[in-house]
Amino acid sequence: MDLGTVIGLVLAWGFVLASILMGGSLMMFVNYPSIMIVIGGTFAATMVAVPLNRLFGIFGVVMLAVFDRTTSIGETNAKLKEFAEKVRKEDLLSLENEEISDPFMGKAVRLAVDGVPVESIRQILSDEMSSMKTRHEDAQGVFEFAATIAPAMGMIGTLVGLVQMLQALDDPSSIGPAMAVAMLTTLYGALIANLVCIPIGDKLKERTKVESKNMKLVIEGISSIVKCENSTITTEKLEAYLPPGLREGNDKEG
Same domain for 89 and 49? Predict the structure, then answer.
């Protein structure tokens, strides 16, 4: 689990709720017409903009924002160096029974062991990396759209509330509820956009960067191993993807 995501979301919502409770009752900020306009309207507009199969397919990708299943770049680098050393001492077939938790790396090793030409391996793996990026970008696009539409729905709710308020000027008891709709829809739209959609969309972008970097590292490492390149060359290729602090001979990140 990514504690940064969980703690950040809890703190953000916690601070908002705490500030509300310090100034009065939480129920003062609960308005069902406003919820219908903003949450319902945002979801409905997103359904119009995004195909249903893509909309409901994002939930698996969204879990990446909370559960980080990406192998660290250091672990990937160490594993590839281990493979390179083993192949140098034995041969490619020695990797056949290796237990590999990363599916992408496992596929790369299987292709290498099966004797697939290196250019074909690179093409197959590159296509899979492109597919991963497309899936992630689809999910990010949904959140970007929702982050745009939620404040807009809040503005629509504000206009609805103002119209209701102006029509009820001769009835003072109706002005308060109408004003609540006007103000709370703006608040709800801002909260949804800034405390849910934008942070999760940005976290998914970060996940995509890390996973892409890992995949590129695997492609270069396996290609070098299949070509039986000098171990020094393989090491230099792999370490080009590492921050300075994780490279051999460095004690701290530069």
Answer: yes
